[in-house]
Specification:
Rossmann fold, seven-stranded parallel sheet
């Protein structure tokens, strides 16, 4: 099926690895052009160059999404380079593994800043460009944690819930401007973060290999499919929502979590 993304211009944050990189690759496969944004521009360059060797279809830019002026500069540069913006994917993020009693006030502020302003700065800066497009769309990468909180991820869960609420509000506010806003909520996804946790497990004396370790973790988390997801599986949901074929979908949230049911 043609997703009608040929020559569409999409800005993706957190594009140097994991889901953001998978989204970028999938968009390129659909014929789109991408403004790829990440903090570490060298890491971004290393990741993107194999996908776009001559630099004709991906503009690589460095920006911290919590820095409003840096985001505005990146959005302006991307729109000027390609002649507009049709969509944005707000994907920058991380998780803070800590209970509330073990979390400092500064860490709380940092998590809220990243989850809320990390999306709002991008959407706010891109708003006029998206409104000028006939297919303006936003997808916020979020987590099932927003609806199924865990005590050991207390502040990340709270920040994720706030972003989910904000996304629904923005869908209503931006609809009159022709901008759709949706969320993709991911569960346990096989990315560098979990690989690093596995290495910690092995260094602490763990005997399982990665497949067995991740399967045990999936079972413990109540994942019906019994495994981690992949970045490509998340990217498919994101890219599908960006497609003009999804033109009647806004204010929705799609779970990509293997049927996780930690709570009723």
């Amino acid at each position: 099926m043609d997703l009608q993304l040929t020559d569409r211009i999409v800005l993706v944050t957190g594009a140097s690895s994991g889901v953001g990189l998978a989204v970028t690759e999938m968009l390129l496969g659909e014929g789109a052009r991408v403004v790829a944004v990440a903090r570490d521009v060298q890491r971004l360059e290393d990741a993107i160059t194999p996908l776009d060797p001559d630099g004709s279809r991906v503009l690589r830019l460095s920006a911290d999404v919590t820095d409003r002026s840096a985001v505005e500069a990146a959005v302006t540069a991307g729109a000027e380079h390609f002649g507009g913006l049709d969509a944005v994917v707000c994907n920058a993020g991380r998780s803070l593994m800590a209970r509330i009693s073990d979390t400092t006030d500064e860490q709380i502020r940092e998590e809220m800043d990243l989850k809320i302003f990390g999306a709002w700065n991008v959407i706010r800066a891109a708003r006029s460009h998206l409104a000028a497009s006939s297919v303006g769309a936003v997808v916020n990468t979020n987590a099932i944690l927003a609806k199924q909180p865990e005590a050991k991820l207390a502040i990340t869960a709270a920040a994720r819930a706030a972003l989910l609420n904000l996304s629904r509000t923005l869908a209503e506010e931006l609809a009159p401007e022709g901008i759709r806003v949706n969320s993709v909520n991911l569960g346990l996804i096989d990315t560098g973060q979990w690989r690093r946790r596995f290495e910690t497990y092995r260094s602490d004396g763990g005997a399982l290999d990665y497949d067995a370790w991740s399967a045990d973790l999936a079972a413990d988390r109540g994942i019906s499919l019994g495994r981690f997801g992949t970045a490509d599986e998340v990217a498919f949901a994101i890219v599908s929502l960006l497609s003009p074929r999804a033109s009647y979908i806004t204010g929705a949230h799609v779970d990509v979590g293997g049927g996780v049911t930690r709570q009723p």
